[in-house]
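User: Fold this, then the next.

Assistant: Folding the first:
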Amino acid sequence: MLLAIDVGNSNTVVGLYKGDELLNHWRVRTVVDHTIDEYGMLILNLYKTSKVGSKSISSIIISCVVPSMLNILEPLCKKYFHITPLIVGPGIKTGMPIFYDNPKEVGADRVVNAVAAHEKYEGNLIVVDFGTATTFDYVTQKGEYLGGCIAPGVVISSEALFEKASKLPPVELSRPKSVVARDTVSSIQAGILFGYACLVDGLVDRIKKEIKTESTVIATGGLASVIAAETSSIDFVDEMLTLEGLKLIHSRNV
């Protein structure tokens, strides 16, 4: 069985695969000051809910955008699973040419998403990943990664608003009844949710105009379904896209 681990700045997603079947997946907070043993026990307890023993895990692949977390996860894999994990990074076989000025600068999560999207969907693709940052990546019909853009994520944008505007209270991210809201909480919700949907539609529209071709737009990440529902540009929501990409890259390297 394969343990796929996607480490983001805010959350870490862990997936357990048996062949091509995703048996289970979990989302936990990324905490950089946890010890190796704290993370080890957390992961052990998570996949034990699937009634799988540690000896059933034969391979581990990790995508990580938090460099300090690799200092925890690599020794964790060796200590608790006796496995040297495959790390997504320079030199790994992805099957996708990266047309970036410096390919080493592209985040592992962006590459993994691009690989999975090209495998699962047809034509030219724009992948929007709603994480701590929201990334927009363009993949050609031939399976070439051409680049994209990065915007502040909806959560950190909201946190900055609450921190800098002392009279505005933190609110839950949910859909208000209207854009022209009549109370402060609904006004904030309208600005955040509808405003961010406009940001997504605007950037996707600019990408399409620049590349001068129609593209299928796939959304992934923790808030993908929430934001996608308010956009006009997103065609598919695929919350497991990154885990699927990790599985594909693992198969191409072993």
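Now the next one, as you asked:
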Amino acid sequence: MSLYRANPGDGIAWVTGASSGIGRQLALDLAAEGYTVAATARSADKLHDMALAASGYAGKIIPLPGDVTDADVMEAIVERIEAETGPIVLAVFNAGGYLPGKGSGLQVDSFKNTYDINVMGVVNGLVPVVEMMKIRKRGQIAFVSSVSGYGGLPLASAYGASKAAVINMAEALKFDFDNMNIRIQCINPGFIDTPLTAGNKFTMPALMPVDRAVKRITKGLRMGGFELTFPRRFTWWLKLINLLPYPAYFWIVRRVTGSGKS
């Protein structure tokens, strides 16, 4: 028997980090498919504007502002969705942040803030959602991670480690979730043209527009397996070099990124 896969007629889609970038476009695209989308981010104004932008769609967007780093707030949002709107059948934990971390200027707060958003921001929503899905014996969950989690990259000591944790978490949970008929997926994009990447001062290979990236995500949610990664001409290359011995890996990354140059 195949694992459950959500559709708009079954209940609510919940998207975190929904006020910009991938989260915003995903919420809009899911609403266009007919979902009622509960959209969470810190900016109430941006969520309100997005809900207006979805007017006339087959589905709709319900703004539910909140900070993913606050476990009590996230639990309250899940309870409110379930009580007032309907069962959450699809949860996409997308909220994330990036702070560059150069080895010569490490800061504790950079690591803590990154982990609070990228790791605990997933956990804080995941725990109450799974409690509801477990009762219903079905559900679909997706983590938005990154190819930065495949292996260490320059300036990504905090970000990459947090995304590696999310990938590992998804892999570990799949065993138990399969037994509960909860489908779990891990979304590992390359460079996507979003506000998160806009400040990058280095070359971003195979940079993908956000609308194309989200089309890959929505298709993967409907049809894909455990991992959704794109663009493959870039992400599979990263997968490959992480299979190499460390001396070869470090040599290639240094050559490609120019790291280590003064």
